[in-house]
Amino acid sequence: MFGILASVIDGILVGAVYGLAAMGLTLIWGVMNVINLAHGAIIVIGMFLLYIIVYSLGLHPYVAIPAMIVFGFLFGIVLYWIAVHRVIGQAELMSLLSTFAVNMVLIGLGTAVWSTSPYNVPVSMPSISLHGYTFTGTHITAAIMAVVIAGLLYVLLYHTRIGKAVRAVANNREAAELTGIPTTQVLAMAFGLGVALAGVSGTLIATLFPFTVLSGDAYQLKSFVVTVLGGLGNPAGALLGGVALGLIEGLATPFMPVSWIPVVEFGLFVFCLIAFPRGIFSFTKA
Amino acid sequence: MSDILLQVDGLEAGYDDVQVLWGISLKVERGAMTTLLGANGAGKTTTLRGVIGSLRPRAGRVMFAGEDVTQLSAHAKAARGLVLVPEGRQLFSDMTVEENLEMGAYSPRARQHFKSQLEKVFSLFPRLEERRRQKAGTFSGGEQQMLAIARGLMSVPEILIIDELSLGLAPVVVQQLVETLKALKAAGVTILLVEQNLHLALALCDYAYVIAEGRPFLEGPCREVAAKPEIRQAYLGL
Ligand SMILES: Nc1ncnc2c1ncn2[C@@H]1O[C@H](COP(=O)(O)OP(=O)(O)OP(=O)(O)O)[C@@H](O)[C@H]1O
Ligand SMILES: [Mg+2]
Q1: Which residue of A has its CA nearest to B103?
Q2: How near does any CA of chain B get to the CA of A173, in Å?
Q3: Model ipTM?
Q4: A18 closest CA partner among A219, A248, A159, A268
């Protein structure tokens, strides 16, 4: 019995990290109505940044967290100007194609540098044992960091001037421009934030599981599932959605082969789209 | 001796391949209340959008405080005090009253005056202070219009441009807003008003421009314009 509970708790811990990834996706959608199909590739950048920090620079693995936030933010701003700015306000297909192209470029570059073989960065953290079950230290740390970063995002969006400007632009871009907000700069910044969130979730995932250059797709798909659970464009819902997905994975794992997990997840995805098109945890945007 | 704060010369603008404005010109004197009139679809909103920069003019020039601002973006114009209260209010509906006002004061110039301007706005609209933590989207139409004007005032306007002050509001609320406009004018704020209610506009204003089908139709001091029979023509589109 406790075995299932342990699996569920572990699922929730990992789910918080999924939630963080989805926040990046949903923030970008909420502010500029762009579905960022480079999301998975950015998660992979976060993973390999951990590898570089540990093996090339010999630093402590958790140095990669702040490093990825800063790098992701700047990289996101650059990406915005290269690939997103011109398709803002155009048909959604345009931004899908353009971010998908970025995805292909990044994956191609990654494959050239690191091939597609698996990488693993062992991170040692003390574990907690209860009733003969072990809760891995890295899982607990990753979940705590995900929640802390989500909390910081909340503080930024609700308690700082620039964060409020991001919400104003999300709410009504033309009005924001009229009140003196440089909305183009705000869009670039919001894209940077979304990329930083996706990247740092990748870094956290890489402290938990092995990864390859191609791992991004699976996590991008998980982000989509989380996003429909949480309501597209709703960062707080994304964290809850992530936890819910983790919980479902944790519940399912003891009872079925791993290959069945995606079937459950995407069954849920389709079910949510049909039954709760605004998301189960969506409180805003009535 | 007139001091022209805003001058528009030969403005042409439109949407995609439809040209709407065919050479609109107007002058707004500092401290005066000027009004822009015309039938539905005459191009009033389009004129204002062209002036403010949310629509790029195809031809013509916008001079503000002696400077050519035609090519400036809307946010840069707002930062200089060229402020539009748009048609349909366009509030940040998911944000609170306070946050809406804070966004109104986003530009560095307006930020400096945030505290004093907030006091002014709350004394003009005590209702907003009572409801400062309420989401703008849950407001009634009249309250939303108050908030839209208040948000415009938070930008510390040199000129306040209001598109459709009274649309959809009860007469009492309109009367209240009219009093507010009079108070603003008395305080020296320059106002450019677009208004459906002809009588209301002509009773308030100093100078009027009437446009029809995107072209200048007639202009003059409001008292004279009010007496002209052609004004009905412009409105009925005859
Ligand atoms: N976004 C748009 N796209 C295409 N055409 C538009 C758009 N907005 C306005 N128009 C057209 O431009 C013309 C002028 O519209 P505008 O909104 O400027 O009129 P208005 O004088 O403000 O009218 P109202 O009194 O109804 O507000 C109309 O024929 C309208 O159909
Ligand atoms: Mg109009």
Answers
A1: A179
A2: 9
A3: 0.92
A4: A219
Distance from A172 to chain B by nearest Cα, in Å? 6
What is the pTM assigned to this prediction? 0.92
Owner of token pair 């022209």: B4
Asked whether the beta carbons of B190 and B161 are under 8 A apart, the reply is: no
Identity of residue A79: L
- Interchain contact, B74 vs A182, CB within 8 Å: no
Pocket test for ligand 1, best of B20, B26, B164 (most atoms within 8 A of CB): B20
CA–CA dist A43, A258 (Å, integer): 22
Q: Name beta bridge partners: B63.
A: B7, B68
At A256, is the secondary structure helix, strand, or coil?
A: coil
The domain ranges of chain B are 1-81+192-238
CA distance B217 to B226: 14
Instruction: Kindly list the distances between the CA atom of residue A138 and the CA atoms of A10, A209, A245, in Å, as whole numbers in the listed order.
Output: 11, 10, 19
Strand arrangement, sheet containing B67-68: B18-29, B4-15, B59-64, B67-68
Average pLDDT for B162-176: 90
CATH number for region B1-81+192-238: 3.40.50.300
Low-confidence ranges of chain A (pLDDT < 70): 1, 279, 281-286
* Contacts with B160 (C-beta within 8 Å, 6 or more apart), sequence order: B83, B85, B149, B152, B153, B184, B189, B190, B191, B192
Q: Do A175 and B92 touch (CB under 8 A)?
A: yes
Distance from Cα B54 to the centre of ligand 2, integer Å: 14
Hey, of A179, A189, A234, which one would you mutate to test binding to chain B, going by the most B CBs within 10 A of its CB? A179
Q: List the structure tokens of A34.
A: 């762009």
* φ, ψ of residue B91 in degrees (nearest 5): -75, 165
Report the CATH fold assignment for A2-116+135-284: ABC transporter involved in vitamin B12 uptake, BtuC (1.10.3470)
Does residue B1 carry a pLDDT above 50?
no
Contact residues, chain B, for A285 at CB < 8 Å: 94
pLDDT at A286: 34
